[in-house]
Amino acid sequence: MKKSIYEQMGGTYRREGDYLIPNISVPDTKEYNIGKYGNMHKQFLKENYPVYYSVMLSSGNLFARLERVERKAQQELDRLIHILAKQQGVTEQLKTENQLKWTGLMNNIKAQVEEMVLENIVYVRKQL
Questions:
Q1: Cα–Cα dist 109/83, whole Å
Q2: H or E stretch at 19
Q3: How confident is the model over 20-75, as pLDDT tens digits?
Q4: CA dist., res. 35 & res. 46, Å (int)
Q5: Torsions phi, psi of 15, nearest 5?
Q6: What is the pLDDT averaged over residues 14-25?
């Protein structure tokens, strides 16, 4: 039996039922820091762009992309929370004088900023 080009180059197959599946793996030894937003972006791609997700996964670029999304989302969260807190007068002095009010305001600001980050960074296919 004549070998395929894949087999001539050292590729192997595994049998799954009646099918021969190429043993392909993408070498990836780097540790990636993928948190909440990276995982949300992964799920978004998987559900809305399954072919694109598969291409990114098989090319070895998916996890680097998820890490970039995570990092960018966290940076924007920090930056925008700081800006909105300053605009709304949420200070350390308020925190010492009225913790309950400070907590409520900060939770509100965080929810607003998180909504912006999800819309503009996490739930977007075209990235970085």
A1: 10
A2: strand 19-22
A3: 888 776 666 678 889 999 999 999 999 999 999 988 888 888 999 999 999 999 99
A4: 16
A5: -95, 130
A6: 82
CA 74 to CA 113: how far, in whole Å? 11
Residue 100 structure tokens: 């309950």
CA distance 113 to 6: 50
Which residue, among 83, 81, 38, has the nearest Cα to 63 in the 3D structure? 38
The amino acid occupying position 24 is: I
The kind and range of the H/E element at 15 are: strand 13-16
Q: In this structure, what token pair is assigned to residue 10?
A: 């050292």
Residue-level length of the chain: 128
d(CA 64, CA 61): 6
Are 122 and 37 contacting, i.e. CB atoms less than 8 angstroms apart? yes
pLDDT at 22: 81
Tokens encoding 2: 């004549």
